[in-house]
Amino acid sequence: MRPILVRWAVPAIAVVLLAVMVGVVYAAIATSRPVTLDGREAGEVLVDGQVVFRVRTDAGGFTAEQRAAQVADRLNDALQAGAGPQDVRATTVAGNQVVMARDMLIITADPAEAAANGLTPEQLAREWQGNLVVALGGERPPSGPPPREGDVDWTGQADKVVPILSVGTPGISLGAARVSGPRDKIAATKAVAQLNAEFQRTARIRAFIPVSDLNITRPKRVQGVSVNALIDMRLVGF
């Protein structure tokens, strides 16, 4: 009996170890289905069997059921690209309230759809965002109006370590800093510029500015990114 168990256990353990080593991650699956809500034909979008969106109105020549199918397709594209609960946000794009996953538009909370759900477009976008985040294993975000277009949106924030480059009193330094902020802003951050200044020989000022290139003589600041850890190593001192 024991040799049989061992013969089956060894391959099973090997599969588990292989999955861990190659970083296999299960991707959720979005589906859609037709439903009847309040006596009207509608469509639902589900993630692993959990309803996240209910589409009640026709638009653009498509029925509510067809719109739900389109939304499920977009959502699957985002999930296959690795989007997770931290990447889902409700925001305003071109004056419309939408739900995004990373940089992918998933669904629009248009006025007709919001009215059919008894909500404002802003409220519906937030509700849909929360439903999707929870279905993907995250915690429902706090209520409130979606950020306006152009606002810094901290949903799905990231961090990374970038070099510190410094020119000024008392010399040239090289170190490292950890920066945090929205994912797209962090991707654009290449370094932290350390600016040194001395005021009347009594005070030294050090400013750390996230920048988008390594030419710190004319730094291009990245807005919405914070510096929250420093590792400083002086290479040349005067």
Describe this structure as you would to a colleague.
With 238 residues, the protein is an alpha+beta fold. The chain folds into two domains: 106 residues, no CATH class; 81 residues, no CATH class. Helices cover 27% and strands 39% of the residues. It contains five helices and eleven strands. It is elongated.
Q: How many structural units, i.e. domains?
A: 2
Helix content: 25-40%
* Secondary-structure content class: alpha+beta
List the helices and strands in order. Answer: HEEEHEEEHHEEHEEE
Q: What summary fits the major beta sheet?
A: 5 strands, mixed
- Global geometry: elongated
So how many helices? 5
Unreliable segments (pLDDT under 50, ≥5 consecutive)?
14-25, 233-238
Number of strands: 11
CA-based gyration radius:
25 Å
